[in-house]
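User: Could you go from structure to sequence for me? I need the amino acid at each position, not a summary. Structure tokens:
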């Protein structure tokens, strides 16, 4: 099982960062059939067969943690690159 851990600083207000994560979660559900659920005001969990993880909002940082099953482990580099690209797009 492969894992992905990404920390990215941001300058958004908590409400703005929450709205961005809501938007990203909608896209994840539409594009990848991922189930998402807010666990608290600052942690969104996501899952689908072969992938589980969380997106956690800190005051000045976003943290993405994902665990990839055997099917997705060979795609770790590509998945991580796409996550980083989306974080750059929304939080830079």
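Assistant: Here is the amino acid at each position, in order:
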């Amino acid at each position: 099982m492969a894992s992905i851990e990404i920390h990215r600083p941001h300058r958004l207000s908590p409400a703005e960062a929450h709205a961005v994560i809501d938007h990203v979660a909608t896209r994840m559900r539409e594009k990848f059939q991922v189930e998402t659920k807010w666990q608290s005001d600052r942690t969104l969990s996501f899952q689908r067969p072969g992938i589980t993880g969380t997106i956690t909002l800190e005051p000045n940082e976003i943290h993405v943690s994902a665990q990839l099953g055997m099917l997705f482990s060979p795609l770790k580099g590509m998945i991580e690159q796409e996550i980083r690209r989306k974080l750059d797009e929304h939080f830079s």
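One structural detail worth keeping in mind: The chain has a mean pLDDT of 92.
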